[in-house]
């Protein structure tokens, strides 16, 4: 037999095993979440709106990730990227980057999510230094979604995360 055939067979088996282990994040209808923009909303109605960018106090910069006070305001959508398994969907229990999906801000900074020294979620530069899998990353523990208290929503789709 051709050695290339065995190599391709082994490669396909490894790829299938890697993809099979990654559990996808599902929307409220049970559909798999793929790349795209999503809104972050509280699970319980009446607890405020989605997430947005805001300065601290009277200062317009730096920008923090905050929750809208009105439940009718969905806020600004976010995008997920750079999960390690490289599957086509957003996987559960993997570190990933989160970026606010907005064209421009008042501050000259990107809108990737960071956790600062005071544990505030703030906007900052694109993670660099270790390639596309560099920190900071956010990880969603697997298990009961009701414990987490937020929905990821893509326009008309709601996602438990």
Automatic annotation (TrEMBL):
Instruction: State the organism named in the record.
Output: Arabidopsis arenosa (Sand rock-cress)
Keyword Signal listed? The answer is yes
Name of this chain's protein: Uncharacterized protein
Q: Which GO terms describe its molecular function?
A: endopeptidase inhibitor activity
InterPro entries the UniProt entry points to: Kunitz_inhibitor_STI-like_sf, Prot_inh_Kunz-lg
**Matching Gene3D superfamilies, A to Z?**
2.80.10.50
Q: Classify the source by domain of life.
A: Eukaryota
Q: Name one Pfam family in it.
A: Kunitz_legume
Sorted alphabetically, the keyword list is: Signal
Signal peptide from the UniProt entry: 1-22
